[in-house]
């Protein structure tokens, strides 16, 4: 899929599609008479809209400001400002409910005044006016209710595009009174009846009429159900307009890992683009980035006079060995933290993709989510996007988990992908890269994972700091050009930036304060204004504004500034939880300091955000605070939460999923140091260790305990699977971690989807951690699977005969995997669900080398699933049978493997309907390929004339004649025709779904078949085509690439070779051996295969050194075969005989001076040829080695 219909690249389409914002309407109404409506919407309607939004890749999270009556916040003078600020944050979404009450307002001349209400309103009006809402002091607004002022702000002063009004009909009260006890009528009337004021009634009528006259969308309802229907209809239209269903060609699902990744990166970039001030220096840097990116991209380079010649002279260099002046492929932007690099790159990316949508542009922002700091995730993401664009394929038939978890393989695939075609890759925040898999961070930052020479058509842009290792490593490369990011803002630019961030409060500052702010030692850093932005918005009504501002502008570092800001938040907005709750509930509180900064709910929740993996949603954060003891009168309500969100608007970024995370690493680091007392970011680098007793260790342990309690009580979901095991790991609770990842619902969800690569890597990571902690997770997992049979549901114990035709009634049932993942730990399981547990456990154990356990569980899975499988879940039977086939193929038992592959193929044919045609076609092609592989001969045959030249004695003393050979060949030729047909059909299916690596596998097997049929040229052509495809996909160093080199070397020495090239064959064998040893380990069976073949080749050379090395190779191969397959396996016996023949030759050589010439000749003939290699002898000696090829 190189380009879409509009000419855009898939990367551009994904970037635009993933650029989604949360739909967050502000809910406005009078409080007293709309509690029922608000509760109904919150419990019934909003969850439905949020579910639909989740399917569209975003969230529906209304702001409903309500607080506890017993708390003092409702008496605060900041209520009106909080409401108006929230309306601005929710723009352009607004929901207004109006009934028969006008709301709290100043009393008119004809009304009785309440001194307390008047005083509260005066304070709120003054506070809001001081914070930028001066229009509140206008005479027309002084006597308006709080509700009307909210409407004025959202609909009259700034008409929001998506504001809807719902007027409740007066007849609703009659219906309510009909269903209640007469004794309760008075209390109901007191809630809903209008205020006893003609002024309030008149103002309410005028407000409603003005709303209608302004042509705002107004709906009328009587019952809650009518309100729900109207609201769903209106907001579904909004959702459809803003975020229609996603094109499946762009993203197959919003639940997929690739969508979540793109969404995280785009949300990070959009947060940077919210405020952008153009200055001459920024325009210059944007032009430099464009000049760099347009090279070799099929774009006519634009000339611009905006870039000074001095800058261009520095930027333009010549690559070593290049005849023409060109730009290096890698551009490094180096500048101190907070200087605006990320904002610059984010803005430029939007410009370049808009002007050149055909470009293959892959942005990666380190810090946008937990996986972004792992360079292997960056490389896998680039590899996948480039493969999809240039090879039109993202399906991989390889079941090797090491393709994801092996650092070397990931690098090789990444380097191969960079050569596929032109691309623009952006890595923002190279200085924040962390450890990757088992590779430490300092090794990653040496940048050795980049190719030694990046292709010129691959334009790479990396941002970092000059003090980081990445800059030192990159600056020493010849294909890199480093540019120091200058100060992007002059005096005017700083003032404009301040105005953009502060908004309406800019007038409050005055020239003296503005001068003081822009004269700070940090004033050249845009992040400085980000930190000050929300603080300056509330300074207009702050009692100590001057003192706070003075401390802020004199902060010497960004860390000091963030620390001062966090201190104010905890002092002014937080409160302590009751002492009675501090015993049983873990307290995240400094053990060595009594500083108030470390206490209260604000400090607690900031710490929880830092200790979470992917951030927390509003609901999760409030639930965690309740776990800590903030309940009843100490509860943190949504109103209090909204106040924190407003002041932390630029500190916490809301992802489309609703999760809140830190967009700036400096803010996160300041919280870790100031609130956790940690200097090394342990929450991201290592788990809690009992060896360390520092205060931050205790705080971190307590925080992870709270989050573990939170996620352990939530229903099973992808979110729970991502967070809960990680929290247990980071908290150092190995026993609970082992138990959790072995729970069926967690384990199956971690392994279920082939596209969820991160979760599979997570499981491997947890597995390694448990092994290092001297746990035995394989035994726990095996016992869990075996004991799951005890949870068999009573009704499931009745096993019925499997009838596919009668199973059609089950087609509409939920998937068995979905049901299993929703089950609680103590819920009963159906027989099919137990089979699934056995299948996933067996498959995973097999991938990790526990073959005996895997074999038992896979067979159990088949026996349990076969009688009860339904049409909807028939693909599970295919998976089980395919896994058994792969298991036997791994053990070199092709006949048994063929039985299971044929069974899987039959099951696949029984699928009446399938929702994923691509997966089905890929499955058919893969199974046909496996079936053909099992039928292929294990070696390349010898021609009759070669047999006649080498009449080697058999064990019974008989010699095979050419006639017996011809009969065998005739039989094999008949089978070859069938194999060729199967392979052709497999290739057809794989081409339908563009299964690139699968096609390479088919070509490899076609090459083996051609060699069997003595079509050497065809065989070599097919092998080399497979090699080219595999090197494009996997890189130059991969086990499957080694397989082709092994096959080509075998082919050159087979009976089909006219003139064997011994030197080339030996070189390819050694290359295959080196790859297999490095990638598979010294004791792998494939290593034994290549050892034996190389030994036979060296033996045939006949030199003394070659014979000596051959003997060592045979011995190594024999040791591997014996340990893996036993002493009686056919391959083990073959190697033992070869080794014995060499030893016989050695014995003969010792007595070479004592025997007659005839005796010496007999000794030589009894061994395998010790004379120099010839055309004929090379074919004879290599036939046994070829037998071990596959």
From TrEMBL:
Keywords linked to the UniProt accession: Repeat
Stretches the record annotates as Disordered: 944-975
Pfam families referenced in this protein's UniProt entry, alphabetically: DUF4062, TPR_10
Domain DUF4062: 26-105
InterPro entries per the UniProt record, alphabetical: DCAF12 (IPR051191), DUF4062 (IPR025139), P-loop_NTPase (IPR027417), TPR-like_helical_dom_sf (IPR011990)
One CC-aspect GO term: Cul4-RING E3 ubiquitin ligase complex
Keyword Membrane: no
Cross-referenced PANTHER family: DDB1- AND CUL4-ASSOCIATED FACTOR 12-RELATED, DUF4062 DOMAIN-CONTAINING PROTEIN
Name of the featured protein: DUF4062 domain-containing protein
Species per Swiss-Prot/TrEMBL record: Pocillopora damicornis
């Amino acid at each position: 899929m190189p380009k879409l219909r509009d000419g855009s690249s898939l990367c551009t389409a994904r970037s635009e599609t993933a650029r989604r914002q949360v739909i967050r309407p502000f809910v406005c109404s009078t409080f007293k008479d709309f509690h029922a409506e608000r509760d109904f919407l919150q419990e019934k309607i909003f969850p439905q809209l949020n579910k639909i939004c989740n399917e569209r890749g975003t969230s529906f999270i209304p702001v409903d400001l309500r607080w506890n009556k017993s708390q003092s916040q409702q008496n605060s003078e900041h209520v009106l400002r909080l409401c108006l600020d929230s309306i601005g944050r929710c723009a352009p979404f607004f929901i207004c409910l109006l009934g028969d009450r006008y709301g709290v307002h100043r009393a008119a001349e004809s009304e009785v005044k309440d001194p307390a209400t008047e005083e509260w309103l005066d304070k709120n009006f003054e506070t809001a006016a001081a914070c930028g809402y001066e229009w509140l002091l206008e005479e027309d607004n002084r006597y308006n209710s709080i509700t009307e002022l909210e409407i004025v702000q959202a609909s009259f002063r700034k008409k929001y595009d998506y504001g809807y009004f719902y007027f409740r009909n007066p007849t609703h009260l009659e219906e309510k009174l009909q269903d209640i006890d007469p004794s309760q009528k008075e209390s109901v009337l007191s809630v809903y009846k209008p205020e006893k004021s003609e002024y309030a009634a008149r103002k309410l009528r005028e407000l409603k009429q003005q709303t209608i006259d302004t042509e705002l969308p107004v709906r009328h309802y009587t019952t809650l159900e009518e309100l729900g229907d109207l609201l769903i209809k209106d907001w579904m239209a909004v959702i459809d307009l803003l975020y229609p269903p996603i094109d499946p060609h762009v993203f197959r699902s919003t639940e997929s890992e690739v969508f979540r990744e793109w969404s995280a990166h785009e949300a990070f970039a959009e947060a940077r683009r919210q405020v952008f001030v153009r200055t001459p220096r920024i325009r210059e840097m944007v032009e430099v980035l464009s000049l760099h990116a347009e090279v070799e991209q099929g774009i006519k380079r634009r000339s611009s006079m905006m870039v000074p010649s001095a800058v261009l002279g520095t930027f333009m260099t010549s690559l070593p060995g290049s005849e023409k002046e060109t730009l290096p492929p890698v551009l490094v932007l180096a500048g101190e933290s907070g200087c605006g690099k990320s904002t610059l790159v984010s803005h430029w990316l939007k410009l370049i993709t808009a002007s050149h949508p055909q470009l293959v542009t892959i942005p990666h922002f380190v810090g946008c989510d937990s996986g972004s700091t792992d360079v292997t995730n960056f490389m896998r993401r680039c590899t996948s996007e480039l493969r999809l664009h240039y090879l039109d394929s993202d399906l991989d038939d390889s079941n090797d988990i090491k393709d994801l978890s092996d650092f070397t393989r990931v690098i090789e695939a990444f380097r191969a992908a960079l050569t596929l075609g032109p691309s623009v890759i952006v890595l923002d925040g190279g200085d924040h890269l962390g450890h990757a898999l088992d590779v430490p961070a300092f090794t990653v930052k040496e940048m050795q994972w980049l190719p030694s020479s990046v292709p010129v058509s691959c334009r790479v842009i990396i941002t970092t700091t000059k003090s980081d290792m990445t800059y030192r490593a990159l600056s020493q490369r010849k294909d890199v050009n480093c540019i120091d990011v200058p100060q992007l803002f002059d005096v005017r630019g700083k003032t404009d930036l301040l105005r953009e961030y502060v908004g309406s409060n800019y007038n409050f500052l005055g020239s003296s304060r503005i001068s003081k702010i822009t004269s700070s030692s940090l004033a050249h850093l845009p992040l400085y204004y980000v930190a000050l932005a929300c603080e300056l918005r509330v300074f207009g009504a702050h009692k100590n504004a001057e003192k706070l501002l003075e401390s802020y502008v004199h902060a010497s570092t960004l860390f000091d500034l963030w620390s001062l800001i966090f201190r104010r938040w905890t002092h002014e907005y937080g409160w302590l939880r009751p002492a009675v709750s501090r015993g049983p509930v873990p307290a995240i509180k400094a053990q060595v300091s009594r500083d108030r900064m470390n206490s209260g709910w604000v400090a607690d929740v900031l710490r929880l955000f830092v200790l979470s993996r992917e951030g927390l949603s509003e609901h999760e954060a409030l639930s965690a605070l309740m776990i800590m003891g903030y309940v009843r009168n100490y509860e943190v309500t949504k109103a209090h939460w909204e106040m924190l969100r407003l002041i932390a608007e630029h500190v916490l970024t809301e992802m489309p999923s609703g999760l809140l995370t830190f967009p700036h690493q400096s803010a996160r680091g300041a919280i870790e140091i100031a609130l956790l007392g940690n200097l090394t970011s342990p929450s991201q680098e290592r788990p809690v260790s009992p060896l360390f007793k520092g205060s931050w260790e205790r705080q971190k342990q307590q925080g992870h305990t709270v989050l573990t309690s939170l996620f352990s009580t939530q229903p099973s979901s992808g979110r729970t699977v991502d967070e809960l095991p990680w929290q247990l790991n980071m908290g150092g609770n190995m026993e609970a971690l082992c138990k959790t990842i072995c729970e069926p619902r967690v384990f199956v969800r971690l392994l279920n989807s082939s596209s969820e690569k991160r979760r599979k890597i997570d499981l491997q990571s947890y597995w390694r951690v448990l092994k290092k902690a001297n746990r035995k997770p394989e035994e726990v997992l095996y016992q869990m699977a075996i004991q799951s049979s005890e949870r068999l549901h009573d009704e499931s114990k009745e096993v019925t005969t499997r009838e596919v035709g009668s199973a059609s009634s089950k087609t509409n049932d939920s998937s068995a995997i979905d049901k299993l993942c929703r089950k609680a730990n103590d819920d009963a399981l159906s027989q099919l669900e137990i089979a699934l547990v056995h299948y996933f456990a067996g498959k995973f154990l097999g991938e990790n080398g526990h073959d005996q356990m895997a074999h038992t569980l896979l067979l159990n899975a088949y026996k349990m699933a076969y009688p009860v499988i339904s049409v909807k879940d028939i693909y599970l039977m295919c998976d089980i049978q395919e896994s058994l086939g792969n298991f036997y193929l791994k053990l070199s038992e092709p006949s048994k493997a063929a039985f299971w592959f044929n069974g899987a193929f039959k099951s696949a044919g029984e699928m009446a309907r399938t929702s994923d045609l691509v997966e089905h076609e890929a499955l058919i092609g893969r199974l046909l390929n496996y079936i053909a592989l099992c039928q292929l001969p294990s070696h390349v045959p010898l021609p009759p004339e070669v047999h006649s030249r080498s009449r080697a004695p058999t064990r019974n003393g008989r010699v095979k004649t050419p006639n017996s050979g011809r009969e065998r060949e005739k039989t094999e030729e008949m089978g070859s025709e069938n194999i060729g047909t199967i392979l052709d059909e497999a290739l057809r299916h794989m081409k339908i779904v563009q299964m690139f690596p699968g096609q390479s596998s088919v070509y490899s097997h076609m090459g083996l078949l051609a060699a069997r049929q003595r079509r050497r040229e065809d065989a070599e052509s097919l092998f080399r085509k497979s090699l080219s495809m595999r090197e494009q996909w996997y890189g130059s160093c991969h086990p499957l690439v080694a397989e082709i080199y092994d096959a080509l070397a075998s082919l050159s020495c087979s009976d089909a070779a006219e003139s064997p090239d011994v030197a080339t064959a030996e070189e390819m064998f050694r290359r295959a051996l080196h790859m297999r040893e490095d990638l598979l380990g010294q004791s792998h069976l494939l290593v034994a295969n290549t050892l034996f073949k190389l030994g036979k080749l060296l033996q045939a050379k006949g030199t003394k050194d070659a014979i000596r090395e051959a003997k060592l190779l045979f011995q190594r191969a024999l040791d591997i075969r014996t340990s893996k397959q036993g002493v009686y396996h056919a391959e083990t016996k073959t190697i033992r005989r070869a080794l014995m023949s060499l030893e016989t030759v050695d014995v003969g050589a010792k007595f070479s001076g004592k025997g007659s010439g005839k005796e010496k000749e007999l000794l030589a003939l009894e061994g395998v040829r010790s004379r120099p290699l010839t055309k004929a002898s090379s074919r004879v000696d290599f036939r046994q080695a070829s037998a071990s090829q596959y």
